[in-house]
Design a protein that fits this description.
The chain has helices spanning 2-17, 22-33, 43-56, 70-76, 92-104, 118-127, 145-154, 181-195, and strands at residues 60-64, 84-89, 111-115, 135-138, 161-165, 199-208, 211-220. By secondary structure, the protein is of the alpha/beta class. It has one domain (2-220): Rossmann fold, CATH 3.40.50.150. Strands 3-2-1-4-5-7-6 form a 7-stranded mixed β-sheet, sandwiched between helices. Helix 4 (70-76) links the parallel strand 1 (60-64) and strand 2 (84-89). It binds S-adenosyl-L-homocysteine (SAH), 3,4-dihydroxybenzoic acid and magnesium ion. Magnesium ion (MG) binds at residues 39, 139, 165-166.
Length: 224
């Protein structure tokens, strides 16, 4: 019952506040046709990312985990005309699909997708002297999150907003004895957030068409 109701309300919200959106719908259609898993953020969550990026006034965004570029499109649309987004994806096939989806959304000039393990791409970004980014969205492999937090701090400034997807995992995150490596990865990440004095953090629990999960909102408040 709960899931049915969450989906119905998500549809209601999306109908009211998002409506028909050709590029976003085409991105989901092409991702589905290519057999990608449907683990993209929901429309309402995508709009939340978009709103947060606009409130932040983000001109430079870093995303970890591109998949088919659905969240990428939402975030890139929040950028001013000279804004840029870099998205990291380990799977070249996914990156290729995302590039086509992003081009269809007329965002090809604003978005760069880098293929490779996020840890390697992050090191390269640092070596290139990139950053600090105004907003960082962490949504790649969950066991890597604690490591990605360390890199994110190096690519941040006081005022950077870090967002992290999937930090509640149907509530399993509260189970210290969980045997799920994704849950343990998220628990390690959340503990690192809590221990980090340079960060001001909370987690919002979310329900909707993607089930029950959560988003971490993290403000970098001191130099890192
Ligand atoms: N942000 C997307 C969903 C990302 S799903 C959206 O909401 O639309 C997570 C993605 O991270 C997958 O495409 C997966 O291939 C990628 N990924 C997994 N491990 C990775 C790694 N080590 N480095 C970079 N990307 C990784
Ligand atoms: C998974 C990954 C995600 O980024 C997500 O939003 C949902 C599920 C997963 O790997 O299962
Ligand atoms: Mg996710």
């Amino acid at each position: 019952m709960a899931q049915e109701q969450w989906t119905a309300v998500d549809t209601y919200i999306a109908d009211l506040f998002i409506g028909t959106d050709f590029a976003l719908e085409a991105a989901l259609d092409s991702s589905k046709a290519a057999g990608l898993p449907t683990i993209n953020v929901s429309p309402a969550q995508g709009k939340l990312l978009h709103l947060l990026a606009r409130v932040q006034g983000a001109r430079s965004i870093l995303e970890l985990g591109t998949l088919g570029g659905y969240s990428t499109i939402w975030l890139a649309r929040a950028l001013p005309p000279d804004g840029r987004l870099i998205s990291l994806e380990i799977d070249p096939k996914r990156a290729e699909i995302a590039r086509a989806n992003i081009a269809r959304a007329e965002l090809a000039n604003a978005v760069e997708i880098r293929v490779g393990a996020a840890a390697d791409s992050l090191q390269k970004l640092l070596d290139e002297g990139r950053g600090p980014f105004d907003l960082i969205f962490i949504d790649a492999d969950k066991p890597g999150y604690a490591d990605y937090l360390k890199w994110s701090l190096k690519l941040s400034r006081p005022g950077t907003l870090i967002l992290a997807d999937n930090v509640v995992r149907k509530g399993a995150v509260a189970d210290a004895a969980s045997a799920d490596e994704n849950v343990q990865g998220i628990r390690k990440f959340n503990e690192a957030l809590a221990a980090e004095k340079r960060l001001t953090t909370t987690v919002i629990q979310t329900v909707g068409c993607k089930g029950y999960d959560g988003l971490a909102l993290i403000l970098v408040t001191e130099n890192s």
